[in-house]
Specification:
The complex is a heterodimer of chains A (about 300) and B (about 250). Chain A has twelve helices and 13 strands. Chain A is of the alpha/beta class and about 300 residues long. Chain A has two domains: about 230 residues, Glutaconate Coenzyme A-transferase; about 50 residues, no CATH class. In chain A, strands 1, 2, 3, 4, 5, 6, 10, 11, 12 and 13 form a ten-stranded mixed sheet that branches. In chain A, β12, α8 and β13 form a beta-alpha-beta unit. Chain A is globular and about 60 Å long. With about 250 residues, chain B is an alpha/beta fold. Helix content of chain B is about 25%, strand content about 25%. The longest helix of chain B has 11 residues. Chain B starts with a helix and ends in an 8-residue tail after the last helix. In chain B, about 55% of the residues are buried. Classes of the chains: A alpha/beta (about 300), B alpha/beta (about 250). Chains A and B meet through β3, β4, β5, α4 and α5 of A and α3, β9, α4 and α5 of B.
Chain lengths: ~300, ~250
Amino acid sequence: MSTEKLTTMADAIDRFVPNGASVCMGAALEAAIPFAAGHEIIRQRRTDLTLIGPISDLLFDQLIGAGCVARFVGAWVGNVSSGLGHNYRRAAEQGIPRPIVVEDHSNFTISLALLATTLGAPYIPTRSLLGTGFLDVNPAFKRATDPWTGDPVVLVPAIQPDVTILQVQRADVYGRCHLWGTLGISREAAYAAKRVIVVAEDILPTDRILSDPNLILVPDVKVAAVVHEPFGALPSPLQGCYGRLHELFARYHEASRTVEGFQRWLDEWVLGVTDWKGFLDKLGGATLKTLTPKRSQLSEPLEYGA
Amino acid sequence: MEYTARELMVIAAAREIHDGDVVFVGMRLPLLAFALAKRTHAPEALGLFENGIVRETPSSEMLYTMSDPPNLPGATWSTGTANIMGMLAQGLVDLGFIGGAEVDKYGNLNTSYIGEPRAPKVKLPGSGGAPDIACYAKRFVIVMPQEKHRFVEKVGFVTSTGHGDGGGWRARTGLPGGGPVALITTLGVFRFDAASGEAHLASWHPGQSADTVRAQTGWALRVAPDARETPTPTAHELSIVRECDPQGFWTR
C-alpha cells in the first residue's frame, strides 16, 4: 500500500539529504532545476555532498560556493546565459571555500551511467570519449575491447545517486508525478536513485494523476517525499508554468565574481530568508507575473478507456 | 551594411548547414545559425537539442537556453537526452557545432582544464555534450573567437576530439564520426585537410588578411592555395539574424 509522503521542504531535506549524500539535481538540464530544494540544503548547512548532474546552470555553483560540496560528478557547471561559474572555478583552482573533486563525464556518459543503474547493468560500453583526456583523469572509465569486433570501447560504470530531487508540474501525495517539457536525463536520474524527492507546483487528487499513467515519470516506490513548492524551479523555467528569469542569472554572475560578493548574495537571497516563500517575496509578485506563459497550448486529451 | 564579428560568425556557420542535414544545434551562435539556414538555403534541415527536443522549425522567440519554454511548441519529438545522444550514436547526425576555450591545429578542443587537471590554473566549465558530438557526428564545425593564446599548437587537455595528431588518427582511435570540417573564428574560416587533418586558412573576414589571422594563431599557419576573403554578409542574412536576436544578446 502506498503511504502519503507530503511534507515540507525543510523536513524532506532534513530526512533524505544527510551530510555526505550523493544528490542528483538539475537532470532536466536548463529547465526544472530544483532551486528551492538547493537553497534549503544550503540553509541546513549540509556538507561533503556529492553532486551528480549533466550540466548545472547556476545551482551547483551556489552549493559549491556555500561549502556544501566535496565532489562533482557530471559534465558542466556554469551559468548558461552568462558564462562560467565563479564558485566552481574558485573551488577547483584554489580550494575556496573548500577543495572539490571533479569526476568528469560528458552528457552522454552521465546518461549511460544512470541508465545502467535503471537496467541493473554494471556498466554500458560506448565509443564516446575514445581519444579524450577523460580517460586519464576519471578512473571510473575503463578502456576495453569489444569481444565480438575487437573495436576499442569505453566502459561507463553504473551510478546510483542516494537521492534525486526533481521539480515537476504536478504530483499526488503518494509521489506519482507528471513532468513534461524538457526532460534531459530526469527519467534515468529518478529511476536510478535510491530515493526521489518530488517537488511539485501542484498537488492533485490521485485520480487526476492516474488519469494519465503514461506520463508518470518514475514508480512511486522510489519516492520518499513529496513537497508542494510553487515556483520551486525559479529562476529556471518550467514548461507551462513559468519562463526563465534571465535577469537573475546575469545578476548572480556579477555578484559572485568575488567571494565577498557571493557571500552577500547568499546572505540576501538564501540565508536571509527562512523558506522559499521568502525568496519569492523578495522577487515580488509583479516579477512572477511577467513569467507566466503568454500563449496556452493544451495537449489533446487521451482516451484510456478499457 | 555594418555588422559585428559575431553576426558574421553566425552567417558563416549557417552556410555550413546543408539542406536536409540533421543538425545537433547546441546553444548560442549555432542556435542562430540554424534559424538562419532554415530560412535561407536549408529549409529541410532538422534540429536536435541535447535536452531532448527535435524541431523542424526554429523557435518563434529568441532563446537564452535550449530549454526555454518557447523551444517546445512545434517540436516534432520531445524525449530525453539519452535518446538524442542515441541519434548521434546511431550515426544519424550529419552536422554538429562545438565551441571551445582552446583549439589546436588538428581541431582538438579543450573546455576542461588549463594546466594540470589535478591542480588546474583554470577550471573551465566542462564538456556538456561536446565530446559526444565530436565522437559521432558525420562532421562538425567549431565556432569560437580567435585569440592567439587560445589557438595553440597542441591543447593541454582533449575534451572533444578533432583529428588527434593528424590524418588517420580518428580511425585508429575507433571514432565513428568524421571529425571537424571547419573552424569559424572572429577573423576567418579554417578548413581541415582531409589527408593531414590539419587546419588551413580558407578565408579571412573582410578587413582581415592572412597576416592578421596568422598573428592570432599559435601554430605555423598554412594558408590554402585558393584562400580568399570571406563573402560579405548580405542584407537579407543580417536582417534574419537581427530578427532572431533582436536585442543583440548573442551577436553584439
